[in-house]
Design brief:
With 263 residues, the chain is an alpha/beta fold. It is 38% helix and 25% strand. It has nine helices and ten strands. The chain has helices at residues 46-54, 93-103, 108-121, 137-150, 167-184, 195-201, 223-230, 233-237, 240-254; strands at 2-15, 18-31, 35-39, 61-66, 69-70, 78-81, 155-159, 187-191, 204-208, 215-220. The chain has a six-stranded mixed sheet with strand order 6-7-8-3-9-10, sandwiched between helices.
């Protein structure tokens, strides 16, 4: 049963140079347990699409429905993890994760219990009382993930959350995100510029065209599930099939014929 339905979505806005068509006729469906990743060249409208799903940006054309209800603004049914962690440095880790629950009026004992559960999910239960500045970049992003999960959203939205991390930390957080997805069963919508990252995470990969952004190609993948089963990320990413699909997606983005891959 479809739980997120995007139909004929279009976004236009005025700029100094005139009217910009950011998105045009975007159609996408997502069901429970799916991990959708959007990729494409810079300016293709990936973040605009995420902002529309989050309710931060109104659509010019078309509609978005979550569980049959129109998306007309932000809501607790959607959790967002930003490019930068957007944490509040004057609050400790626990109070950052609790923040949304406190705004909703959840009782202190209950919200602490819920926040600690999410910190445990991302492996930071022993850092609940630490200041944000005491944490590494990867740990800060984990706090951001825990905070987004704390309200138990139907859909998790992630806007290039790993872009600022070093390569080794980035790979470890990729694995963490797959574990969180697997354990919670949440729908995930994720944006990245990394083709390898997209293939590793996605069950449903969408490639977007340059502006106006449209979905030009879609792939059904299971590399993330293979990692969940084997716990060997390097074996998954170095497999001939992974390399073949990676080169195919790169060719689509770069508008060229895919290179032949030696057997």
């Amino acid at each position: 049963m479809t739980t997120l339905d995007i139909r004929h979505l279009g976004v236009r806005y005025a700029s100094k140079g005139g009217v910009v068509d950011a998105l045009s006729d975007v159609n996408l469906t997502m069901a429970d347990g799916e991990f959708v990743v959007a990729i494409g060249a810079s300016g293709c409208g990936k973040t605009t699409l995420l902002n529309c799903i989050a309710g931060f940006l109104p659509a010019t054309d078309g509609a978005i429905e979550l569980d049959g209800k129109p998306v007309i603004g932000p809501g607790a049914d959607r959790g967002v993890v930003f490019q930068k962690h957007a944490l509040m440095p004057w609050l400790d880790v626990m109070r950052n994760v609790e923040f949304g629950l406190r705004m909703r009026g959840v009782a202190p004992a209950e919200r602490r219990k819920m926040a600690l559960e999410k910190l445990r999910l991302v492996g930071l239960q022993d850092f609940a009382d630490r200041a944000i500045y005491e944490l590494s970049g990867g740990m800060q992003q984990r706090v951001g993930i825990a905070r987004a999960l704390a309200s138990d959203p139907r859909l998790m939205l992630m806007d290039e959350p790993l872009g600022a991390l070093d390569a080794f930390t980035r790979e470890s957080i990729q694995e963490l995100i797959l574990d969180v997805w697997h354990r919670t069963g949440k729908m995930m919508f994720f944006i990245t510029h990394s083709v390898e990252e997209a293939l590793f995470l996605a069950t449903h990969l969408v490639v977007m065209t340059p502006r106006p952004g449209r979905i030009s190609h879609e792939y059904r993948l299971d590399f993330g599930r293979r990692f969940i089963e084997t716990r060997d990320a390097r074996a998954v990413k170095s497999s001939p099939e992974f390399i073949r699909v990676r080169e195919d997606v790169l060719a689509v983005i770069q508008h060229r014929e895919p290179a032949a891959i030696a057997a």
